[in-house]
Write a structure and sequence with these properties.
Length: about 100
């Protein structure tokens, strides 16, 4: 499967947090993805970009919070995260970037 430019539109960036690092030990990796992306699109993009076999994709949408910035109210944007579980024997080095 060849890498298409739209695959890089689906996967925005890897998420590297404590929770994501713990998930990586269970062969699951966390990515910020486009809001309009679907699970099959995410699976195809991860398999093409990283050259691995995906077992499952779980997604979650985090609504943006209302926060104050320099005393003025503002709203953070909504985010969609994908928890991608890989088949046995596959791994991704998220520290190298996309």
């Amino acid at each position: 499967m060849s890498v298409k430019p739209e695959h890089y539109d689906v996967i925005r960036k890897p998420i590297i947090t404590e929770k994501a690092t713990m998930a990586a030990e269970a062969n699951a990796y966390v990515f910020q993805v486009a809001m309009e992306s679907t699970k099959p699109m995410i699976k195809e993009a991860v398999e093409a970009v990283f050259g691995v076999k995906v077992k499952a994709v779980n997604t979650t949408i985090t609504k943006g919070k209302e926060k104050r910035f320099r005393g003025r109210p503002g709203v953070r944007s909504d985010r969609k995260k994908a928890y991608v579980t890989l088949e046995e024997g596959n791994s991704i080095d998220v520290s190298t970037g996309l």
